[in-house]
Write a structure and sequence with these properties.
This protein is an alpha+beta fold. It has helices spanning 23-31, 48-63, 66-78, 81-103, and strands spanning 2-6, 12-14, 19-21, 36-40. Helix content is 59%, strand content 15%. Strands 3-2-1-4 form a four-stranded mixed sheet.
């Protein structure tokens, strides 16, 4: 399992290969079947879910998938509970990232 540390400046450090990495790198690890655990270096909390959601969001927005956006909205409208929960997480991460980009 790869242990990734996230520092307060939002930089990600891969302890396995002793280098800074990006969200796209984490997505590559997952696609290759590797397990990843992301730890907030300041608090020691496991923030894997949050970082994986951000990596997923980065891939989706990079491809500007209009179909995926329609899928999320229709899931919310149809009342599919699992997809609705995923959609809420997705949009909460999206709003967090939007705020961070606005502040930068």
């Amino acid at each position: 399992m790869r242990i990734i540390k996230r520092y307060s400046n939002r930089r990600l450090y891969d302890a396995f290969c002793s280098q800074l990495i990006h969200l796209e790198d984490i997505a590559d690890f997952i696609q290759k079947g590797e397990e990843v655990k992301v730890i907030d270096n300041t608090t020691g909390k496991d923030i894997t879910s949050k970082v994986l959601a951000q990596a997923f969001l980065r891939l989706v927005t990079k491809n500007k998938s209009e179909d995926f956006k329609v899928f999320l909205f229709s899931s919310l409208i149809s009342g599919n509970e699992i997809l609705a929960i995923f959609s809420m997480i997705f949009f909460s991460v999206l709003s967090e990232i939007s705020i961070l980009y606005f502040l930068l």
